[in-house]
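Hi team,

As requested, here is the filled-out complex form for the magnesium ion run. I kept the field names the same as last time so the parser does not choke. Let me know if anything looks off before we queue the next batch.

— J.
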Amino acid sequence: MAVIEGEKVSDIKRLEDIARGIRIDILKMLAEAGSGHTGGSLSATDIVTALYFHKMRHNPKDPAWKERDRFILSKGHAAPLLYAVLARSGYFDPSLLSTLRRLGSPLQGHPNSKSLPGIEVSTGSLGQGLSVASGICLGLRLNNIPARVYCLLGDGETQEGQVWEAAMTAAHYGLDNLCAIVDNNGLQIDGPVEEIMRVSPMNDKWRAFGWNVIEIDGHDMAAILSALDEAEKIKGRPTVIIAHTIKGKGVSFFEGRVEYHGKAPTSDELKRALKELGE
Amino acid sequence: MKATRDAYGEALLELGKRRADVVVLDADLSGSTKTGEFAKAFPERFFNIGISEQDMIGTAAGLSLSGKLPFASTFAIFATGRAWEQIRQTICYSNLNVKIVATHGGITVGEDGASHQSVEDIALMRVLPNMTVVVPADAYETKGVVDVISESYGPTYVRLGRAKVKEIMPEGYRFHIGRAYTFNLGRHANIIACGIMVAEALKASEALRNDGIDVGVINMSTIKPLDGDVLIQAARTSGFIVTAEEHSIIGGLGGAVSEFLSENYPVVIKRVGVKDSFGTSGEPGALLKLYGLTSEDMVKLIKETITISNC
Ligand SMILES: Cc1ncc(C[n+]2csc(CCOP(=O)(O)OP(=O)(O)O)c2C)c(N)n1
Ligand SMILES: [Mg+2]
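And here is what came back:
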């Protein structure tokens, strides 16, 4: 799947259908594992689907391909989403998905680059991915490789100081090969981001740090694709896409519910969720 | 006399000429860490990240992921303390080829005082899986260390000093990761030292020889992985080991040697180092005296211990 021109999916309906399948994979994996992060995996599903099945140039048969676009999951707890997308893209056998979080599984609770192909760097401790992304961008530029780097952050995650250190660095070095995406679902673990530690006005902050800012509905596939295209056209500075999303998107009884941040569906919830998703 | 940081600046410059993939990062201390020399010669391969050590470590990780060989430098306490978890999560867990070469290790930083004197960095780096930890003893060894680590894959921490130190390693000596250098083995005691304490240990050994006490000196410049063979040989020869480091006696070289020997060849061990305290402002020589890190302190300790165990 995906990838090198010709194989990429550009039909919106088809992409939405892939995203639906990814959501189903995520829910099954989590239910099987009995633990893991549901809300933040579902909120970013449309974005990551768009990246891997439409936007990014990558080759599942050659994960170390030098010219590939890179994806850094800075919010590493959305590992189930990344695993489902990598499996459906062809990086590894989808039957591995059912081993999530089990002893001996390469599908660690948070992504481990040493255990699974397609993972650029190990994450899980929030706030670190954007620095890595900008380092890769600097290296790509030195190597004259025109690849792009995408980095997905949580909105709560942007409370970490290092995110803003990295934001400064990326702007200072004019990294237009970098595109950060904030999964702006409004929730973190202990409650709404607005109540726990206000990050808003998010757009003004990034703009003040020297970034090009694009704001979209993070579940509108067409909007995601055009934002990704627009980001690529901006020269001289990095772009951040603030994607307004709903935590737990796709399953009515998980949507906007803070308690489903780090809770896996029960078998009953799984049944009802799959029905809603038309499975 | 030359500071190990000066040797680093020179070695980096030479390495930069030889290898186009070498990149250097600093956090607003390039004049002090001596990465400024590289920066002048190769401005396009030097990245000043500003006063943001955590981002510097992450950016270095990213550069290594794109095939570069990054050297990241700042003061020891900021590199290993402020950015510890970045080193753990991003560099060590992903096993990335990033070289963290920090200067201003230990109390001989001097007048800047405790905030800038790192006596914890070796412990902080040693505990991390995949990490190699090296503390060269002089400028000559530092150059060798830079060359060797640039040729070997993996996360590496190198601790350098601010003050000028005497050249003590013999000409022709070649550094190897994980291989200690034995100056001599003593029958009564063997001092396992690193960094500036190797020179002090040599002085102590010399002084004790005049009193008929035979003390060996070993430069354990690689603290991780430790040279276990040399340690066992030293313990077997003398039955008494002294460790010496410009670092807390907790968790550093003394900790590492004690852990290893207690499991593999238990003998009497005494640790010379900073005794669970912060540093303080002062002239480096005076600080070494105040914290008990001179050759005289070692002579006293060895004499006392030998007398006690003889009666
Ligand atoms: C440095 C760090 N601190 C705390 C945590 C625990 N943690 C995991 S997810 C999370 C909340 C993240 O919220 P947000 O970034 O908004 O993610 P999302 O809503 O997309 O799940 C926290 C605090 C962590 N993983 N890393
Ligand atoms: Mg959130």
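Two things worth flagging: The pocket of thiamine diphosphate (ligand 1) is lined by residues A 39-40, 43, 75, 77, 124-127, 154-157, 183, 185, 187-189, 247, 261 (CB under 6 Å). Chain B has a mean pLDDT of 97.

Thanks,
J.
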